[in-house]
From TrEMBL:
Protein's UniProt name: Acyl-CoA dehydrogenase-like protein
Domain Acyl-CoA dehydrogenase/oxidase C-terminal span(s) in chain numbering: 18-170
Organism domain of life: Bacteria
InterPro entries, sorted: AcylCo_DH-like_C, AcylCo_DH/oxidase_C, Mycobact_Acyl-CoA_DH
Keyword Flavoprotein set for record: yes
């Protein structure tokens, strides 16, 4: 959006003149930090649930596949924790939040969805129950599964986050865009 003949007093300006992109980027990175840092993955709840769950084949923790999945998510959970520490450390030094927040949000959002689906799968047919009195784990995993798509959209979709990680973390070239330097209102569209 472009404004013509707009004057903003210095007392109301964020950042230096002409530095709007850095202000916007900092705002987005802080948003991703706040979403990613508070996004519960459901791993501690799943681990506790599996520790108590008795399936038709015996205790869930005796199942190799269950233990393998728990180990996989334990590693991811630990990685998220230390990536979050890295972001907080940068902020404490007065640095701008970096792309690690995109990594955290991407991993946490998909992990939440995977964990909730797995817990419901462990419940079998009872996994679809939503009544807290009847549902396994009080319906906690059903609620997680239903809210997980929203978490994967808020603050940037998975695709946007992957592009950020590819370009800013891995240094891969960006997508080819013929309209990159064209103002939005001048991009040709059908029907105009």
């Amino acid at each position: 959006m472009f404004f013509t003949n707009v004057r903003v007093p210095d007392s109301q300006r964020l950042g230096a003149v002409g530095d709007g992109w850095n202000v916007s980027l900092t705002t987005l990175m802080n948003e991703r930090l706040s979403i990613g840092a508070r996004l519960a993955t459901g791993f501690p709840e799943l681990f506790d649930y599996c520790s108590e769950l008795i399936t038709a084949d015996g205790p869930a923790l005796d199942d190799r596949a269950v233990r393998s999945k728990l180990a996989h998510w334990a590693v991811k959970d630990s990685g998220l924790k230390y990536t979050s520490y890295r972001a907080v450390s940068a902020l404490s030094k007065g640095q701008r939040p970096g792309p690690e927040n995109s990594i955290g949000k991407l991993v946490a959002g998909s992990m939440l969805q995977e964990i909730a689906a797995f817990a419901m799968e462990l419940d079998g047919a009872a996994g679809v129950l939503s009544d807290p009195a009847e549902a396994g784990a009080g319906g906690r995993f059903q609620a997680m599964l239903l809210s997980s798509p929203a978490m994967r959209i808020a603050g940037g979709t998975d695709e946007i986050l992957r592009n950020i990680i590819a370009e800013r973390v891995l240094g891969l070239p960006g997508d080819i865009r013929v309209d990159k330097d064209v103002p939005f209102n001048q991009i040709p569209t059908r029907g105009r």
